[in-house]
Specification:
This protein is of the alpha+beta class. It has seven helices and eight strands; from the N terminus they run ααββααβαβαββαββ. α1 packs across α7 and α3 packs across α7. Bound molecules: flavin mononucleotide.
Length: 263
């Protein structure tokens, strides 16, 4: 399965982390579409997604900035082979494609990289000898409106705020950016990241965007390279919407990867 560019671009502009879920059944055709995305959006052979029923105790209570996820009937576990040096960015990239498909299906999601029980998550999604569950997302219909608790958890909107591009980008002056670079960077900017830390930095050259981390300190015990993988999926989705195709080259820290346009 390829990136569904128009559909996922629309979704990436709307997606929000949701932590409270309603007791509402997922219709069979919606369930089936998400299952297909989990099974077929597999751009890397070292990363896979498992869509399964879950119990609430997989999500832990308050940890640092985070509260408990409540009422979700399903989860998707993002599983990777720990021997792959680029596994974290590949988890972010693959997982975000699936999260955007869930968003397009009007389902609620929330990347959870910290506040989940690894043992319980692994019992829902069996892992191989070299595999690990790097992150999960609850899946279900989010409660119609954010409750007071949810608003409290998101700092009454604070966690949705994003840095201006000027603070994130170096290289070519903005006035010289081709249209696809501008659209892609705006899409990367709204990507979710752990505790909304937005660790990505972007170097713009005439036909490429290089993604790096701001520093090598993986705060909160969640990899910044995973966050960057999410931004990579947003960049490529937006590039496709601008009819630009390209390829990713994985790089070593503090760089993460470079997208080079083939158009
Ligand atoms: C890799 C990653 C890990 C995350 N881990 C957690 C978590 O453990 N618990 C939680 O409640 N939210 C978690 N989040 C959600 C972020 O807090 C949220 O994406 C961020 O505040 C931006 O808000 P938004 O997703 O609504 O745009 C995580 C997000 C990412 C990308």
């Amino acid at each position: 399965m390829e990136i569904l560019s128009q559909r996922w671009y629309g979704a990436l502009l709307k997606r929000r982390s949701r932590r409270l879920y309603a007791a509402r059944l997922i219709p069979a055709e919606v369930f089936e579409k998400l299952t297909v995305a989990c099974n077929e959006f597999r751009p890397f052979d070292t990363v896979r997604a498992v869509f399964t029923e879950c119990s609430e105790n997989v999500f832990k209570g308050i940890i640092g900035a985070y509260g408990k996820i409540r009422g979700a009937p399903f989860l998707i576990a993002f599983i990777g082979d720990t021997r792959d040096p680029y596994v974290k960015e590949k988890i972010g990239y693959t997982g975000e494609g699936i999260i955007l498909e869930a968003t397009a299906l009007k389902l609620g999601t929330c990347w959870v990289g910290k506040s989940f029980d690894h043992v319980i998550a692994s019992s829902f999604a069996t892992t191989g000898e070299h595999e690990k569950v790097f992150a999960v997302t609850p899946i279900g219909y989010a409660s119609a409106e954010a409750s007071f608790e949810e608003k409290l958890l998101t700092g009454f909107g604070q966690t949705h705020k994003r840095e201006p591009l000027a603070r994130l980008v170096s290289g070519l002056q903005e006035t010289e950016w081709p249209e696809w670079i501008k659209v892609s960077l705006l899409a990367a900017r709204v990507a979710p990241s752990a505790v909304n830390r937005q660790p990505w930095r972007f170097l713009v050259e005439s036909n490429s965007i290089t993604v790096s981390v701001d520093n090598l300190n993986d705060s909160y015990g969640i990899s910044k390279r995973l966050d960057c993988g999410i931004a990579m999926l947003h960049i490529e989705t937006a590039a496709h919407v601008c009819e630009v195709v390209g390829k990713w080259e994985f790089l070593d820290p503090p760089e993460v990867a470079r997208f080079i346009s083939r158009s």
